[in-house]
Amino acid sequence: QVHLVESGGGLVQAGGSLRLSCAAATNIFTMGWYRQAPGKQRELVAVITRAYTTNYADSLKGRFTISRDNDKNTVYLQMNSLKSEDTAVYYCYGKRVIGGYEYWGQGTQVTVSS
User: Fold this and answer.
1) DSSP letter, residue 60
2) CA gap 32, 94 in Å, rounded
3) Structure confidence by residue, pLDDT tens digits, 46-104
């Protein structure tokens, strides 16, 4: 089991920005973020590999940027021009290449007020 520690959530006004961070205790090839809004299924936000290959939800391209620091085993999510529909619990995600093991953080609440 790999522990993922998230930080950076909170309350922000529409149009504002937030930066989420997630640190892993060890190297994980793919890291990223999913989110789950009330009454909805968990959905992909963005993921990034150690080779810096990224994959974004189409609807979030241009507003959200994912990055990582491989030396710190940390992934970041910069969220700009936030909208009320971005309100959700954001979960850090990790996946190993060998065995395909997946890991989840506890989640951090992001609330965008209109």
Assistant:
1) G
2) 6
3) 999 999 999 999 999 999 999 999 999 999 999 999 999 999 999 999 999 888 899 99
Beta partners for residue 34, in sequence order: 44, 91
Question: CB within 8 A of 51, min separation 6: which ones?
Answer: none
Alpha-carbon distance of 94 to 4, in angstroms, equals 8
Q: Encoding tokens for residue 100?
A: 């395909």
Place of tokens 């391209």: 61
- The residues near 86 (Cβ < 8 Å, ≥ 6 apart) are 35, 79, 110, 112
Torsion angle defined by CA atoms of residues 52, 58, 62 and 67, in that order, rounded to the nearest 10 degrees: -20
